[in-house]
TrEMBL record:
GO terms for biological process: protoporphyrinogen IX biosynthetic process. It is an enzyme of class 1 (oxidoreductase). NADP(+) binds at G184, A185, G186, E187, M188, G189. SUPFAM superfamilies: Glutamyl tRNA-reductase catalytic, N-terminal domain (SSF69742), Glutamyl tRNA-reductase dimerization domain (SSF69075), NAD(P)-binding Rossmann-fold domains (SSF51735). PROSITE patterns: GLUTR. It comes from Halorussus caseinilyticus. It comes from the Archaea. Homodimer. This is Glutamyl-tRNA reductase. Catalyzes the NADPH-dependent reduction of glutamyl-tRNA(Glu) to glutamate 1-semialdehyde (GSA). During catalysis, the active site Cys acts as a nucleophile attacking the alpha-carbonyl group of tRNA-bound glutamate with the formation of a thioester intermediate between enzyme and glutamate, and the concomitant release of tRNA(Glu). The thioester intermediate is finally reduced by direct hydride transfer from NADPH, to form the product GSA. Keywords: NADP, Oxidoreductase, Porphyrin biosynthesis. Substrate binds at T52, C53, N54, R55, S105, E110, D111, Q112, Q116.
Length: 455
């Protein structure tokens, strides 16, 4: 198994420091292509990316943090430096846990982000981008996100981005008896469609590139008057709509200014990333377009109601973060220690076989005598490796990886490939001395033969 070594570096462009345009500029259409590009960078051992409607984040594992920072430095060249947040090892790990728990979402505690992290995790696994460091980190993040939502009230009454969009529309217009249009049949579009149906809109239209996808949403919502339309029918459908929620995954604008001309008064919420609605549409009289930033006011009340729960989640994250760091330390030390013991065991078996052969040449050994010699070999390995084992575990606990690497070099786990017993083993018997706990069970003739060996 690959050792859990390296340093995690991260970078993010998200709603807390950047505008929607900057998040758009940072995001990439092909998530797997981004992962491959990161893995191809010099010194990168692992990679993970997360892209949502209001964030782009990338994480890499390198042997040194300088390599990680260099890889991520130019990863969002079209975004102003003030909007890009660089994260070091521990900051990256803690932030990932916070994101999964919903503490970094535009809507505090929303559930959608957890599914998005799971999807990003599967994409990274398919590309082979995850190793022991990031696999453990993302798995831990998902675990924390699940715990936060089942053990606290962080998502009690929480609204997703899709339902928050509908609440925003309700603040600007009377949804009762309104005609509503949802563009996009993905997760956010589906949530928005359910929320509009719950708001008792008179008529609901669901538009999607695939009519089958639109039909699936239409069947799922609880509404008596719901219709499906193709994207090329949007312009005509807008003539009937009073409110619009757009949430497609299109790389280009789905709704242009021309589509809205002659449509009259209309409230539009664009929650797509990249944006679905052309900025030119905002210049038309009667058309009011609300972006992601407008949802913040909608979520203020929800956030206030869950601050106590958020404090509990923060404490949970502190504990899980410490557990994650400790697991890294244990893995690093245990992998090194395991390698040491495996090498020592191979050397012991080789030298024990040779020693028993020589002893047999002096007249043979009884089964009890052979067991005593074997016990001596086991005791030597245990006693010789006990001090470096403790030192390595202490060094791991103190993040002293230089000591771990130095210890490996000094120990020489392959014993230099020599057929002779290691010097530190031969020295144990230089004066015919044997550890007391072994000597008590060893016959005098066997002890004498071992002590007199002049290898």
């Amino acid at each position: 198994m690959t050792a859990a070594t390296g340093v995690v570096s991260g970078v993010r462009v998200s709603h807390d420091h950047a505008g929607l345009d900057e998040v758009e500029a940072a995001c990439h259409a092909d998530e797997k292509m981004v992962l491959r590009r990161l893995l191809d960078a010099p010194g990168v051992n692992e990679a993970f990316t997360l892209q949502t409607c209001n964030r782009f984040e990338a994480y890499v594992v390198t042997d040194a943090d300088t390599a990680g920072r260099a890889t991520l430095a130019d990863f969002a060249p079209d975004v102003g430096g003030h909007s890009v947040v660089e994260m070091g090892h521990e900051q990256s790990l803690r932030h990932l846990l916070r994101v999964a728990a919903g503490l970094e979402s535009l809507v505090l505690g929303e559930d959608q982000i957890l599914g998005q992290i799971r999807d990003a995790y599967e994409s990274a696994r398919e590309v082979g981008a995850l190793g022991p460091m990031l696999d453990a980190a993302v798995t831990k993040a998902i675990h924390v996100g699940e715990r936060a939502r089942t053990e606290t009230d962080i998502n009690d009454g929480a609204v997703s981005v899709g339902s928050a969009a509908v609440r925003l529309l309700g603040d600007h217009t009377d949804l009762t008896d309104a005609t509503a249009l949802v563009v996009g049949a993905g997760e956010m579009g589906t949530i928005a469609a359910h929320a509009l149906a719950d708001a008792d809109v008179h008529t609901l239209y669901v538009a999607n590139r695939s009519l089958d996808g639109a039909a699936e949403v239409a069947r799922a919502v609880d509404h008596d008057d719901v219709h499906t339309v193709a994207l090329d029918e949007l312009a005509s459908t807008l003539n009937f709509a009073d409110v619009v929620v757009s949430a497609t995954g299109s790389d280009t604008h789905v709704l242009t200014a021309d589509d809205f001309r002659g449509s009259g008064e209309m409230e539009v919420v664009d929650i797509a990333q990249p944006r679905d609605v052309s900025p030119a549409a905002e210049t038309l009289n009667g058309v009011r377009v609300h972006g992601m930033s407008a949802l913040e006011s909608v979520t203020d009340e929800t956030e206030r109601r869950r601050r106590a729960a958020a404090e509990s989640v923060e404490a949970m994250i502190d504990r899980e973060f410490d557990h994650l760091l400790e697991s890294y330390k244990r893995k690093r030390a245990d992998e090194v220690i395991s390698a040491m013991y495996e090498s020592a065991e191979r050397a012991k078996e080789r030298e024990l076989s040779e020693a028993l052969t020589k002893l047999d040449a002096h007249g043979g050994l009884t089964d009890d005598q052979r067991e005593i010699v074997s016990s001596l070999a086991d005791a030597l390995v245990s006693q010789l490796l006990a001090p470096p084992t403790k030192s390595l575990r202490d060094a791991a606990a103190e993040d002293d990886w230089a000591t771990i690497n130095t210890a490996l070099q000094l120990f020489d786990p392959d014993f230099g490939g020599s057929d002779r017993p290691p010097a530190f083993v031969r020295e144990q018997f230089a004066d015919g001395e044997v550890p007391d706990d072994v000597a008590e069970r060893m016959p005098d003739d066997v002890r004498a033969m071992i002590a007199s060996d002049d290898d």
